[in-house]
Design brief:
It comes from Desulfonauticus submarinus. This protein has a single domain, classed as Rossmann fold (3-Layer(aba) Sandwich), CATH 3.40.50. The protein contains six helices and six strands, in the order αβαααβββββαα. The protein has about 200 residues and is α+β, with helices and mostly antiparallel strands.
């Protein structure tokens, strides 16, 4: 009985805890812009060292994730400039290999213009093969959320997410997630949303 109570305590604690690693300014005048989901294909696209990127991510998937980010920020009552607006600046500003990808994103932010620019980098989006109660291959998602302070020309936060769902027997530490997912194998979209919520929480959004 004591073991059961202890396990439940750990589960409830893991669900209740929320980490904030960057305190996003709450002033009304502070402007946040969100870039469309970016799928890096080459080494010069990378902002935080080389990360293997799946070259087969469909553009429709990126659009779905853009919408998911928009909906999540809306639910959190976050005021922001949508990716459709930021995309116009991305199309205007041409990337040059002579300049760094860091400088490129700063210029995009200046073009919008915005105080902060949030850039989702999508490296892997492996869909679930199978159903809720049995899979041949689980969902696996890898992405980064980069937050730039455009005025200071500085990368102020990076959130990295890399998770492939595993069974409870493979990892007992995933007990909290097992209960939260109701014992089901979730989709890649659901896995992305889990990571997104954690990332936005760490940024303070």
């Amino acid at each position: 009985m004591k073991k059961v109570v202890f396990v439940l305590f750990l589960f409830l604690f893991s669900c209740a805890s929320k980490n904030t690693y960057f305190s996003f300014p709450k002033e009304e005048k502070v402007v946040l812009a969100v870039a469309p989901c970016f799928h890096p294909r080459y080494g010069w696209d990378m902002l935080a060292g080389y990360i293997e990127s799946d070259k087969n991510i469909n553009t429709n998937v990126l659009k779905e994730l853009d919408l998911l980010i928009f909906q999540t920020l809306e639910k959190r009552k976050v005021k922001f400039i949508r990716a459709e607006i930021t995309k116009q600046c991305i199309e205007l500003i041409k990337f040059s290999k002579k300049k760094s990808i860091f400088q490129y994103w700063i210029k995009v932010g200046q073009c919008v213009p915005t105080d902060f620019l949030l850039i989702p980098y999508i490296y892997k989006y492996q869909k679930r093969e199978g159903g809720e109660y049995g899979v041949k291959r689980p969902a696996h998602v890898v992405f980064d959320l980069f937050l730039f302070d455009i005025k200071k020309k500085k990368l102020v936060y990076r959130f990295h997410f890399d998770e492939a769902q595993v069974s409870l027997s493979e990892n007992l530490l995933s007990l909290g997630k097992f209960f939260a997912r109701k014992g089901k194998w979730i989709t890649a979209k659901e896995l992305f949303l889990e990571g997104l919520k954690v990332g936005l929480g760490e940024i303070g959004l």
